[in-house]
Amino acid sequence: LRPTTSLNMEYKVICADYYERVIDHLRGNFFADEPLNRAAGLCQQGCGNSELEHHSLATLEDQLSIMALDARKDSDNYGQIAGVVLNGVLLPGDTEKALDKLQFSCDKNYKKIFELLYRHSLQVDLFKCFNVERIFDVRILSVDARYRGQGIAKELVRRTELVARESDYHLLKADATGIFSQKILRSHGFEVFSEQLYAKYKDAEGQIILPVEAPHIKMQLLVKEL
Q: Which family does it belong to (predicted)?
């Protein structure tokens, strides 16, 4: 996908030169704000989380992620990252391996979040269901608070589909944990495949494991066939 400029933004695939800046963006805009992260108390605003950063970097290395850069040359924010979508490759057995590896995590809050995501994904075999050998996995969608309301997230999702098509993928998948990402993905033709109400996700004692604040009431596994 060639870099292009649209509505004062330049959109381009994220290369290694930008990895640290992308992680810094996520520390300030996603790690503390995402509904499950907030419910678990994963980290404070602006702070990092080593396991989530490792997960993000591993995704970036698949070279399928996209960022929006402020392209207004007369602005103090010129060149700053306004938003990112982190996309990765999902192969058969990857989620099972990730769940096994998660049992060795020392971060109980990170573990809570990803046990929900991985176990929900494993309720069905998407590879068999859609007869595909690999899945284009939309993992993180984040826009800097200063740039929200400008359609950046929608444009990142639109360009994600272009990258998937150019790379000859036939299925996109996303675990959308908040109402805003769910709406954006559905507006781009993603369909709800399955969902989990947070209020019904409980431990052995009947306690809600992740008390997510409204309006985020459920996670959705969404898919789009290409």
A: Belongs to the acetyltransferase family. AANAT subfamily.
